[in-house]
């Protein structure tokens, strides 16, 4: 009698679905966290693109910004415009530079932001970069 009960338990597949779910649920959780982090990263990059586009419009429309050399106050004003347009979680971490292109006919707007992930087990921080080339002169 005891042997039949042991054989019955050994051949039972009543808890197979629970065990399969326990194995698969971790992969599903990590995929969902990855999708959320990807969405956050794309949102921050989109905000950076908007701020860079706004700076490009300012350079194209205002004569003071479209010269070959930016005055320090004009550069600070333009940097302030970009940082106010950026609505990320830490706007103070946004780095904005305006180097000249090698030929001198374009001004480059370069935005860099250290993006940190909230999901455990993933790489902590990496830099998101957006740049625009704007004709000057």
Account of the 3D structure:
With 137 residues, the chain is α+β, with helices and mostly antiparallel strands. The protein has one domain. Helices cover 51% and strands 18% of the residues. It has a 3-stranded antiparallel beta sheet with strand order 1-2-3, covered by helices on one side. Strand 2 and strand 3 form a beta hairpin. It starts with a helix and ends with a strand. The model has no long low-confidence stretch (mean pLDDT 84).
Order of strands across the main sheet: 1-2-3
Beta-strand content estimate: 15-25%
N-C termini distance? 97 Å
Order of helices and strands: HHHEEE
Number of strands: 3
Helix content: 40-55%
Structural class: alpha+beta
| Count of domain modules | 1
Round the Cα radius of gyration to an integer and report it.
Answer: 27 Å
- Shape summary: rod-shaped
Query: How would you sum up the major sheet?
Result: 3 strands, antiparallel
The DSSP helix count reads: 3
Set out the fold topology.
Blueprint (H helix, E strand, L loop, with lengths): L1 H10 L4 H46 L10 H14 L9 E3 L8 E11 L8 E11 L2
Antiparallel strand pairs: 1-2, 2-3
Compact summary:
It contains 3 helices and 3 strands, in the order H-H-H-E-E-E. With 137 residues, the protein is of the alpha+beta class.
